[in-house]
Amino acid sequence: MPRALSNGNIALVNGAVVWAIESSETRDPRERLLFAAGYPITPVNEVTEYLSRLSRDVHLTFIQAESEIAAGNMVLGAASAGVPALTVTSSPGMSLMQEAISYASGMELGGRGLVYVNVTRGGPGLGNIQGSQSDFNQAVLGGGHGDYQNLVLAPSSAQEMFDFVRLAFRLSSQYKIPGFILTDGYVGQLKEEYDIPDAVTALPAAISRDVRTSIYVREGVLEEHNWKLFRRFEALKKEPLLKEKAVTAYRLDDPAGKAEVVLLNYGFFSRIGCGIVDRARAQGLPVGQVSLKVLNPFPEETLKNLVKDYGALYVMEGGIHQLGERVQTVVGALPLVGAYQRPGGTLPEEKEVVEDLKFLVEKMRGSAFRERLREYTRLSFDAFPPRVNRGKRFERIRLTESTHDAEYAAGMDGKSPEGRKIESMTDKNTYYCAGCDHKHSTEALGAAFDAFKDFEVYLYSPVGCSIFLYDFFKKDRVHNVQVPHGRGPAAASATKRAKPHSLVISYQGDGDALDIGLGELVHASARGEKITVILMNNGTYGMTGGQLSATTPVDQFSKTTPKGRSSELFGFPLDVSQLLHPQGVSYYRRTLLGTPELNKQFSHFLAQAFLHQLKGDGMSVIEVIAACTEHQRAPQEIIEAFKAEGKKLHPITLSKEYTSKTMSKTFPMAVGWGEDIENPEEVLRNCRRAEAAETPGERFRHFVGILDSMSLLSKKEVSGSTIARGGSASQDSKDMRFYLAGEGGQGIQSLADVLMRAGRARYAFNSPWYEPEVTKARTVAAVTLSDNPCASPSPQAGEV
Q1: What is the spatial distance between Cα 20 and Cα 214, in angstroms, rounded to a whole number?
Q2: Measured in whole angstroms, how far is the alpha carbon of residue 422 from the centre of its chain?
Q3: DSSP code for 576
Q4: pLDDT at site 721
Q5: Angle of helix 518-526 relative to helix 488-498, nearest 10 degrees?
Q6: Pairwise CA distance, residues 243 & 245, whole Å
Q7: If pLDDT is split at 50, 70 and 90, which confidence band does 531 have?
Q8: Taking Cα atoms as reference points, which of 105, 140, 103 lies closest to residue 120?
Q9: C-alpha span between 63 and 48 (Å, rounded)
Q10: CB-CB contact of 184 with 267 (8 Å)
């Protein structure tokens, strides 16, 4: 079995690549093996750098996003297309990703999995760059809005980083929820060896064509959907793969005697905890450890059994009473006899904790504690379960059924189908306001999809009036995806990068694209993402009642500027044609809608935009200066002109006049660039070229060869089998420890690598730390050589 040598962060990426290979048997050879997005942040900077290197050789794609907000939403786009999607960040970045995680939790993505990774550092706020465990509550209890729960795994070694990310992907795929890896910066940076498989077994992954959405507005459907998510998570609790990995025990049933106090921890604290247990046992203290590996579903029954079988719990964590409070909700206050809490990246001093344990053991032995604990567990753990009323909708939708189908059926109840000749569209009645230009553009889109029927189509319609496109396109023809407000271009970019042969469209309003989503749109244009953006610019927030938007003209009415937009108070409207990158956008047109001639012109622009996308020229953008008959208000000069000409003051007519006269002054029609493609067939012919397929076995052998070429495979000859954490300690030999320190560039980490590779011990650990955000930064390496797999990698003062 090959063994690799790297830090935990790199091990995690390698595990993600192996999962992508394992699950790739049914993939189209033109699509990417894995999609990853990230933003530079300490202590995971090497992840983005390593992914960039791998992208050249492993057929994966990586985007360094403009923000963690964008990265968190990019992976939604890739996962929605059925491509494994990964993003790795640290605490402040994870806070920014909560919006996307909440959406992902409701979208039932499945496919080949979606995994978010938080290599935690100190907080709150900017905090510091030291490893920490202060994000436990955010991960386990959920940092976003809504009723949802996600899988959370907590690796404590490079081996577990490699293994757990594969498991997170597998269960994410199977249970249609995001997988979450929560570890700390010390584990992410810890260098050690880990096993990689000799070969991979192809694992099937079903890709659904269901609408990817978390919006359910018809009565009762959201309740039914949330209960379905809840029931699926309850099924996850029974998953054998999770039960097998839930905890790792250390010296509970030791030859010296059964543990009476159990250390409870996770992550790097569990590695130090092994050293604490060894010291305590050497002093005759009956101490053992349980390291939590699965934080959600939280191992409640396991903890109760620990209390029944062993007694008292002592919680160690790199935060302030987050893990401790969660444990207390399960077992109560009495069994929790002690806690060691160190926020901000401070690591435990083993001797200090042993003194704590010594005090507690003596105190418990001299009292009636064990008898009280037995009675407490009898009364508390066997209590009568409460009655919970979950209503008649609890099991309305089966786990295998589509919530969107229930939503669609509820929306059609009592309605007559609207017959259409457009094959890509449903017969759902369009419920846009009378005269709304969304109706014209939606039907033009459907006709264009019919014309490009040989291509797989992904249509992003984020928050705004555009969101209702999910009702109007057949899901066996168009993959419709709803993502958070303004994030369409980020998610669409990921889909296109992951599936370059597909046709990807982001259909947005002006508030969505130019207010909340301006950063995503501008950066996608600067990257020249090969997607098509359709911008419906009506100068107002139509869905929410007509408030000021980024494109409301100066002096014009909105609900939040009833006396007109004041440039002094609200600034000037944004013109997207001046913001898009001229080299990244190959085709841009601005137009009106509403007459047969204008509608025909829009259809022509659509076809050309799609051709430019398929040709690979860059982004294509069509901006529609659109009518909003409900919320646009014609200025007095238009009303006076209508009266003078004897025209009826009809809202639709006034809105069209406002669009063509007032809006067009701010956004002139004579704007655009990019030539029409005169020979569409040549573009389409080039798009149909197939790529040679590889088997998962061939891909895996290629990947192992790449690891070898990067000097990431260990050449060290060591007897024995797989690397294991847990069990009992070997006390046959004394650990050898080195502590190296200096300034960056002095070769400190290189020397540490030499010591690790040269040492004859079975196990070698390097727990490095840097100050990369300071010029001439300090760097340290703590190297441990040991024959004990559970040796603490954190050197103690006076023992180096």
Answers
A1: 26
A2: 36
A3: G
A4: 41
A5: 40
A6: 5
A7: very high
A8: 140
A9: 9
A10: yes
Q: How far is CA 584 from CA 73, 511, 536, in A?
A: 21, 22, 20
Is residue 729 over pLDDT 60?
A: no
Give the type of residue at 561. Answer: T
Among residues 775, 772, 795, the alpha carbon closest in space to that of 785 is found at 795
Domain 3-244 has CATH 3.40.50.970: yes
From-to residues of CATH 3.40.50.920 in the chain = 246-381
How is domain 246-381 classified at the CATH fold level? Rossmann fold (3.40.50)
CB 765 within 8 A of CB 192: yes
Nearest Cα to 489, choosing from 536, 425, 443, 532? 532
Pairwise CA distance, residues 183 & 90, whole Å? 10
Q: Are 672 and 591 in contact (CB under 8 A)?
A: no
Whole-structure pTM over 0.90, yes or no? yes
pLDDT of residue 307 exceeding 70: yes
- For residue 448, give both structure tokens: 């264009």
User: What is the number of alpha carbons within 13 Å of residue 615 lying toward its C-beta?
Assistant: 23
CA torsion through residues 305, 310, 314, 319, sign: negative
Place of tokens 């013109």: 575
Strands 672-673 and 585-591: antiparallel
Q: Which residue has the tokens 């003596």?
A: 362
Q: What is the mean pLDDT of the chain?
A: 93
Q: Select the CATH number that applies to the domain covering 422-685 from these four: 3.30.460.80, 2.60.40.2250, 3.40.50.970, 3.50.50.60.
A: 3.40.50.970
Q: Cα(44)–Cα(374) distance, rounded to whole angstroms?
A: 46
Question: Is residue 492's pLDDT more than 70?
Answer: yes
Q: What's the start-to-end Cα distance of the chain, in Å? A: 33
